[in-house]
Amino acid sequence: MFGFRRIPIAWRSRLEAVRRFYVRSPEGRGLRLLRAWLSPPQLEQLDAKDHFDVIGCTTGRRYRICYGTSMNVFELDDTGCIKTGLCFAPAGRLVPGDVMLAQKIALETCEICALLVANTFSVRNSQETTDAAASAARTCGRAGFTIARRNPRNRQTSLLAGSSVTAQTVSGGHTMTREMMWVMGSMVGLFTLGTAILYVLGS
Amino acid sequence: MPTQIVMNYNGDTRHFFDASDAEALAKAEARFKQLTGKGFTAAVRTKPGEVTRINSFNPKAEETVFFPRLVGG
To answer: Rounded to two decimals, what is the model's pTM?
Structure first.
């Protein structure tokens, strides 16, 4: 309208990355530390795609660490597609760069320790692979993705079995989609509103 | 100069020490023990992109990073 043009999404993402890196903020410091500790291929991958892959030291499995602080680690299968999500992070409030570095170190030096504490979630939309799925799933359960937490009691057993367990097969696990949460939230809201109206009318 | 990098909510805190100074070295070792005692994990960079977890203080390590214990999300 006024001669302004929208900046393309790819450029915006890149500009945002540059801004995050150069601003003297905790986030910027975290990213600088992460970049200093990544291998050249990982650094290249981070610059190009906002995520990088690591190899587990014990099992040799491949994991993808996306930009973020939680639900940002994904196990990849042989074809490079996302198999399942892992949720683990250092305790306390840390910036994304630090969290990603801690996840990398954990997977590369003591994979089993990381897997033992990690909760898993399944990324059901298996048609979407690699980049698109990773970026969508890291925002933790947008429409189309189901987050299924595994029962901690079963974690060790399934870990030793070396299988990825989906929400449906886990006994004691629960599945709750975003839609269900919205419906429940709306119902609670309506109930509260109704109670308030009745209270006002009664008084 | 050898550095101990402790991750925190501010990004990180860096402690530099002179490896030839016995007092500074003792201080750095005490810091290492205190942090690992609290559950922090210590790791050093051996090559670009290659990290090793350490359980005892290494005065020769150029950079040692400490991060809090891992928890499931």
So the answer is: 0.68
